[in-house]
Amino acid sequence: MDILFLFPLKDHHEQRLKEAFPDVNFLFDRKPDDPAIGTSEVIVTYGADLDAAHIEKAEALKWLMVASAGLEQLPQEEISKRGITVTNVRGIHKTPMAESILAHILSGKRGLKRIYEQQASREWSKKTGSRELRGSTALILGPGAIGGEAGRLLQAFGVKTYGCNRSGRKADYMDEMLSFEGLTDVLPEMDFIISVLPSTPETRGLLNKEHFLSMKDTAVFLNFGRGDLYDEQHLIDALNEGRPAAAVLDVFETEPLPEDHPFWGMDQVTVSPHASSLSGKYVDRSLDIFIPNLKLWLEGKAGDMDNLIDTERGY
C-alpha cells in the first residue's frame, strides 16, 4: 500500500513510521502533482495544497489525513462525493495555543509591553499600568480542546470562564455555558472575548460591528480561530470607536497580512503571524494520532479511528 506525504519529515520521524509499518510503502516529501497521487490509498497533507483536480487524479485515495485542524481550504464537496475518509489532528494545538492566549493576556495585564519599551529607552519608571488578572471574566467562543485548555489555565488564575458554542452544551473548564444566540446578552460583561472557532457555515461572519461595540471599553478581543469570523472593517471601526479597547489577532481574512493593512499601524492591535500553534512537538503529536489510526485502518476498523471528520459539516 502506498502512503503519500505532501510535506517533509525529519529522518527520525520517517524511521518511526517505517519501523512501525515495515510492509507499507511510504512516499515522503512529494508534491501534489507527483504521479504517485494516482496510486496512493492514503494521502497525508497540511490541507492547503490539494484542489479538486488533485482529488480527481487521486483515483486510489480512500483516506485523507490532514495534519492540521482546519479543513476549509480542502475541496470538501469533491471529497464528500467520493466518500473519502477524512481525519485531522484536532487536539494537538491545545497546549501551544492555550499558552499563547494566556501569554498575551498576562502581557497586557502586567504591562509587559510598557516594561520592554522602558528598557529599550533606559527609562526607570514604575508606571507600567500593571493590573491583576484574578477576578476577570472571559468568554471563550469554541470551548473544545483548545478553548478548554485555555479555560483551565484561566481558571487557575481566578478568571470566571464562559463557554459559547452552537448548542450551548456543557464543556470542560467552563463555569457557565451559552449558545451563539446568547452572545449579545453576555458580551457587555466580559473582560476578555477569545475565539478559537473553526471556519464553518455557522461561524463565518458570526460577529458583526454591533457585537464589537457591545463590548466594554476596557475589554480585549482575541482571535485565534479563523479570520472569516467577522468582516475586518467592522472590527477596525469598532476599535476606533473605543470598543473593545484592544485586539490580539493571530488569524486574518488574508494571510500573510498585506503590508498596507490598517492593523499594522493600530496601537491597540497586536498582530501575530498565525504563529500561536507553533511548537517543536507538532509533528510528533501528529504522528501520535496518525500511527494508531493507521493500525486501525490496516485492520479494517476505519470507523474506530480518532478525529474522523464529517466533510459535509466541516468538522
Automatic annotation (TrEMBL):
D-isomer specific 2-hydroxyacid dehydrogenase catalytic domain mapped to chain residues: 14-300
Coiled coil spans: none
The keyword Repeat appears for this protein: no
Transmembrane segments: none
Domain called D-isomer specific 2-hydroxyacid dehydrogenase NAD-binding: residue spans: 102-275
One Gene Ontology MF term: NAD binding
Keywords of the record: NAD, Oxidoreductase
Family note: Belongs to the D-isomer specific 2-hydroxyacid dehydrogenase family.
Designated name of the protein: Phosphoglycerate dehydrogenase
